[in-house]
Amino acid sequence: MGQGSWHIGQGRHPAADEEEALRTGLSLGMTLIDTSGNYGEGRSEELIKRVIAGQRDGAFVVSKVEADDATGDAMARACEASLARLGTDHLDLYLLHEPTPNAEFSEVVAGLERLRAAGQIRAWGVSNFTVSQMDDLFRIPQGDRCATNQVFYNLGGRSSERDLLPWCERHGMPVMAYSPLGGLGASLLSDPVLGRIAAAHACSAAAVALAWTIRSGNVIAIPESGSVAHVKENAVALSLTLAPQELQTLDAAYPLSGR
Ligand SMILES: NC(=O)c1ccc[n+]([C@@H]2O[C@H](COP(=O)([O-])OP(=O)(O)OC[C@H]3O[C@@H](n4cnc5c(N)ncnc54)[C@H](OP(=O)(O)O)[C@@H]3O)[C@@H](O)[C@H]2O)c1
Predict the structure, then answer these.
(1) What are the tens digits of pLDDT across the range 201-244?
(2) Is 140 a residue whose pLDDT tops 70?
(3) H/E stretch holding 95
(4) Residues 6+ apart with CB under 8 A from 103
(5) What's the total number of domains in the chain?
(6) Domain NADP-dependent oxidoreductase spans what residues (predicted)?
(7) Containing domain of residue 49, as a range?
């Protein structure tokens, strides 16, 4: 499990609380921090700079480039800007935030590979790609160097189980699940079914939702929180195994059909 940061550094919580929340997550094993050059126009990356200062090696930093910046010189400039805001000389993973037109895949992959060869990124991946876009990506030279696909996936949003998750498993590729708690303002966590399972484990509904999301071992969930208390609840998912009967109960409450 990692930590998201879409709304971090933008006044939703006091900045000091958000920094402490992310540091707490790092110390509890949620070492991957997911951000993007466009989150809060760079303010998310600037706050993360303060979190990882002095402990860069203890964090796995993921940032993203927008599709509009993915061709020509723009990608290298976007990456430089992210590195400067994060105060680091490399990203552990750089993601294409959303698909470009398929005709641009070769140029995008070539740009990402140039950044990798220059040591500015250790690996690259994509986000919001469909199976058909993944197939097209893998037909491009070096397209199969893609390390992950980051997609919307949670108990209430399971559609990627139909095709994308099996595709990634077949290709030995981990999936990153964004909005694993349902997203900002979602009602998922107040569901009584989740609440009952959480009570049986003496943990929070969030921990159950996250344990469900990462249950296959091939999915990395990146919950976002600017609250130390919530981060501590979320980290419980790392050591929570749901029983087959509990998984069945959740499956019945949130069936794949229709989602
Ligand atoms: N690639 C993409 O296109 C894309 C799209 C969306 C998101 N993302 C990434 O995925 C990350 C997570 O997704 P998300 O922010 O949409 O949604 P999320 O992680 O599902 O939900 C975040 C919300 O849950 C609350 N929360 C966290 N832990 C909680 C707990 N234990 N109990 C109760 N509430 C809790 C947070 O509030 P508090 O701060 O108060 O805890 C926040 O309001 C983003 O930050 C971003 O890094 C990527």
Answers:
(1) 999 999 999 999 999 999 999 999 999 999 999 999 999 999 99
(2) yes
(3) strand 93-96
(4) none
(5) 1
(6) 1-254
(7) 2-183+218-226
